[in-house]
User: What shape does this take?
Amino acid sequence: MSTRENSYTEAEALNLLAQLERILDLDPLIDEVGFIHPSQFATLKEEIVYKAAKHAFISALRQYKTPGNFSGKSQDDTLAIEVMIHSKALLLLSCDFATAWNSRKLIVSNKRLLPILMDELHLSALVLSYSPKSEQAWSHRRWVINMIARNCSTLQWIIERESELVEKIAEVLDELKKSRNWSGLHVADNSCFHYRRRLMLRNLEGFCYTQDNNSSGYFVETYQIWKEELDWNESLIKQYVGREALWLHRRFLSMYLIKHMATHLLAVSCQSKPKASVDIDIDSLMDHELCLVHSCSTTIADANFEDFQAQAIHSAAYMLWLTKQIPEYQGIDIQEKLRAGVGDVTRMLKRSCPDRSSLWDYLVGYHSEP
Amino acid sequence: MEYLATNDPYVLWNSLYERYGHLRSVILPNARSEWKPSSYKTLSVAVAIIVAINIVVAMAVAIIKVVDIIKIIIIYLVQQPASPPVSHAHSHSLLLRSPSYSHGLSTSHSLSLTAVSPTSPSFLKNSTSASPNRRWLRLLLRRFPTSVKLRPSLKFWLKWLKKGSTEISCERKIFFFLCVVVAAVIKFSFAVVKPLPLTSLLLHLEMGELAADKHVKYIISVEKKKDSFESVVMEHLRLNGAYWGLTTLDILGKLDAVDEEDVISWILKCQDESGGFAGNIGHDPHVLYTLSAVQVLALFDKVDILDADKVSNYIVGLQNEDGSFSGDIWGEVDTRFSYIAICCLSILQRLDKINVDKAVEYIVSCKNLDGGFGCTPGGESHAGQIFCCVGALAIAGALHHVDKDLLGWWLCERQVKSGGLNGRPEKLPDVCYSWWVLSSLIMIDRVHWINKDKLVKFILDCQDMENGGISDRPDDAVDVFHTYFGVAGLSLLEYPGLKPIDPAYALPVDVVNRIFFSKK
Assistant: This one.
């Protein structure tokens, strides 16, 4: 009885599989797939269709791989097409089936034609539309893009080194501007701030390469960009209370500004006359930071507002970060100011964030060492 | 061999410390947790006995006292002090007629009463006022089915109530002496018990317990269930699932619940001709599954059935020029694969086959400004990647490249208010990070910067107490992946009853010791 049942469902399964493949074939521009919430009967079908798809795929792949079948090119092609069809159906059911993706890579790497590669991008986009965290799909996409870059590079003409660099930098600034609006709307997304940090670092690298006469001019421009970023960050901090990603971004910005900009400033100001518009002063920077920290760390007695508490904790941690990162030779008054602030800060941190009290102790202890 | 070549003992010491230093944070807790259960048993049993005896004695004494007091109260309720004769006679007749008080009248009792009469209350004899009250009291005393023992205590209470003679003082003395002795014994027992985790026992009662048996049942059921849609869809990573499930069983001490031969024969079928292992039979090989295969074989102490050279050649072939590792022949590069390569080759004891310095150099190039590591150079810091990089550096003996304070700061900021850990800033907590963040903190020796008790509570809250298994967050669906990480995290936090686990190899410490320290 059960065997009869199985054989019945097998035929049904193959039928369903053929239907699915026909649908995919008929409309190659499908770019979104959704699954209706499965009822019990539907899941039963899904599982069986999956098994049928897998079976078809594996048999096709085995046929393709066995060396005896490389007799005629047409046969080779038909087998390849079969593998592609079956793997497509299988991947829509089980997006992380690595062997299926690998088989597609194998077939595509034998052909290396741009339209086929574009097809792969299309399929991976389709899979990602309903399963955006599918690691195999992203990995496949990366591989395809690498293939495109590798094989189509002869079509691109080689740009001169100077202009290439400029273009790169310009692209970076462009990208910074473009992503700023998006970042402003997604302040809890740490990845977007990480991306901005990478862009800014790329910018800095570009600056380091052009160390000539017009360096001061370029330096001012770079400094402006960093300062702008800091100010924008500050406005976001005040607007979106208690967002960790913003404070972490600020840590990076101020550390780099003070460490790298300041050292270069000393070198530059000795040579050329400093531009009047730019007021680069480490003391004032630190002052500003301390004021910001103070304004944020006034803990509101009403501890119901978690945001304000988080803001206070983050600003205090930021303060400790500054004390740890500032190198010693940066002026005695700054040290004084910092030391004054540290005591209150640590007390407040220990009260509101007692889990990390050993961290706060350690950091303060470190700071007090001469 | 290299140790023979170094002359400077300081250099030798440093390199040994680098290579094995992370074990220090693992072996010490291991020894401590071995000591704990035995001391737990002996002293807690003794304490339990003492406390029980005290309670029993106190209860017995209390019952006796209560019974006496009740009797006294009855006496005083029945008799009326200096009341008019009419009512008195009335009450007396009441007494004689009520059946409850006449049942005790029997010849044997009267005999016992007469036998004890010399010790009858003196105040009854000595009192000059032969009031009817006294007579009735005497009568009652005779009629009550009191035993010899109770009568002195009854006397005592009467005396206390009437503020009478000195005859009972010795009774009082004995009673109070008993009280003092009992109190002293209880105090002593608690003083001895205090340093032991009796308080943590209470804490455990408060925070809930690890439902170990349920988890074992859940894992075994998952292993058997091969036909549901969920398991069918996950079949390409079944070897990973085997590692998660079996390591959990081993930590819970129940590895014998599975058929060893079955598992091993299936694993060997997953091996590809290139030497690497696939996720399941008939799939393509990848380093992810190769590591899981080697780890599972290590659990069963059957690593030697592998052709170590074949497997290691597969991995060696995947190292790139810059020192990074690809996952398989298709070239995807990630620091996870660096960790896998170094860990796997270390277990197979073939670490010298790869260019370790280059591999370390690549990992260090993935270090970010916040002290963390990404998947590729410049990639965002992520707890999983950090675990892989720190673990790889630990095994390769290169932990000095890590800025421990900076990384420790970043890692301890992963703890959120609920006690759980997240993987990146602003993300939700997840049980799997309680392994990746925690083991990283242990390897860099900064685990005291987080609140361990809160984390234990978070993990225990993520359990499904009915069906077994652990989910990523409280009240979510369970899976084997999070069950493994939850139990492994608890083991790192020294939860009682769990085997200690090595933070770098992600295998139980005794398994790692067996690989490295047993003579073959």
About this structure: The CA atoms of residues 13 and 45 of chain A lie 7 Å apart. Chain A touches chain B at residues 43, 46-47, 50-51, 58, 93-94, 96-99, 102, 105, 139, 142-143, 146, 188-191, 194, 197-198, 243-245, 248, 251-252, 255, 306, 317, 354-356, 358-359, 362-363, 366 (CB under 8 Å). Chain A is about 80% helix and 0% strand.
